[in-house]
Amino acid sequence: MSAQSVTKRFQTVVCIGAGNIGAGWAAHYMRAGLDVVVYDPVAARSEWLDEYFKRAMPALEALGLAPGAGLNRVRFTTNIEDALAGAQFVQESTPEVLEDKIKLFKLMTDIAPADAIIASSSAGFLAKDLRSCAKGPERILIGHPFNPPFLVPIVEIAGGDAAPESAAVAAEFYKSTGCEVVELKREINGYIGNRIQAAVLREIFYMYSEGIADVATIDRAISSGPALRWAVMGPSSTFFLGTQNPDMYADFVNGLVEEIHGGFVADPAFSIDPQLIKDYAAEVRTTIGVDGQKPLLDLRNTGVVKIRQALDLMRENGAKFL
To answer: How many domains is the chain partitioned into structurally?
Structure first.
C-alpha cells in the first residue's frame, strides 16, 4: 500500500487515553493534518488537553503544520463507543497496567470496526499479551513512541511478526505522518529504545551511588558527549568510526568488550535499593528540577525542534543517516 493510499485510508485517528502520551499523539496527528478523536473517561482531561496543546503549539508550528491542520480538528469525548464508531486507526495510550490493557483491548475490538488497526503505545508489554482476549488479534500491534510523540519522531513497531499485514500498513501510515519507524523482527519486553535507556539509567544509579559525580554532572557528560553523536548516528555506527582501519574493526570491538569486563560497567551484583531511589529522586528535584518542569520543558521543546531542523537540512543536502 502506497503512502498516498494509506493517508487516504486513515483520515481519522482515535487516541485512547489523554495523558502525556495520548495528548502527545493527538498533537502529532493534528499537525499531520488528520482528524483526531481523543477519548478519556475523565471529563477534566478535556481542559488539561487544551492546556497541553497550548504549550505544544509553538513547537508544532516550528516543525510545520500540514495544510488544513488545526485544533478545530481535535474532538474530545468520554464515551468510548462514540470514539470508536467508524474508527480507522486507534492509538491506545492508557496507564501501564497489563490486566487493564487486556480488558481494554477486548472491549475495543468488540466495539471498533473489524478492519480498524489498533496500536498500543505501551512502554514494554508484548503485543501477544495485549491481543490474548481480543477479537481479530491480527490487527493489534505495538506502536511505541518516545515522549512526547509530537516532538520525538521515532515509533517502534513490535508484535508485527504475528500481524504482518497490519504492521506493514501501520508502518506506512506512521511514516506518512512524519514518524521515523523501526520494526522489531520479534518481540521482547521493553523493545529497543527503552532497553537501552534502562541500561544507561542503571549506570547512572551506579555512578551516583558510588559518589563518582552528582546527577547534573552525569547528565552533562551524556548530553554534551555521546548524545550529540547519537543524534546523528547510532552507537554501532559511532563505534565503527573509532578504529583507523575498518578491516580491524573486530579487534577494536574485542577491545571494547575487554573494557566492559574490566569494569567499564556496573558490577553485575549491583542492585538499586529503595533508599538509593529516594536519594536520587530527591537530588534531581532539588538540583536539576529546582525551578520545576516548565523551564526544562521549554528547553527540551526548543532544543529538539532545532536539532530536528538541523538534521532535516543535512538530509536535504544529501547526508545519509543510518
So the answer is: 2
Q: What is the domain-level CATH number for residue 91?
A: 3.40.50.720
**212: domain CATH number?**
1.10.1040.10
- Indicate whether 92 and 218 sit together in one domain: no
- Say how far apart CA 208 and CA 218 lie, in whole Å: 8
For the chain, what percent of residues have pLDDT higher than 70?
97
**Sign of the CA dihedral running 230, 322, 56, 61:** positive
Asked, for residue 131, whether it belongs to a domain, the answer is yes
Cis status, amide bond into 148, omega within 30 of 0: yes
> Coil, helix or strand for 180?
strand
Q: How far is Cα 71 from Cα 67, in angstroms, rounded to an integer?
A: 13
Instruction: State whether 169 and 109 are in the same domain.
Output: yes
Q: 3-class DSSP state for residue 165?
A: helix
The pLDDT mean for the chain works out to 93
On whether residue 45 sits in a domain, the answer given is: yes
- Residue 283: Cβ within 10 Å count: 15
Closest CA to 242 of 232, 260, 256: 256
User: What angle in degrees, to the nearest 10, is found between the helix axes of 274-286 and 215-223?
Assistant: 70
pLDDT 10s digits, 89-138:
999 999 999 999 999 999 999 999 999 999 999 999 999 999 999 999 99
Q: Are 27 and 50 in contact (CB under 8 A)?
A: no
Instruction: Tell me, yes or no, if the pTM score tops 0.70.
Output: yes
Domain boundaries, position 256: 192-290
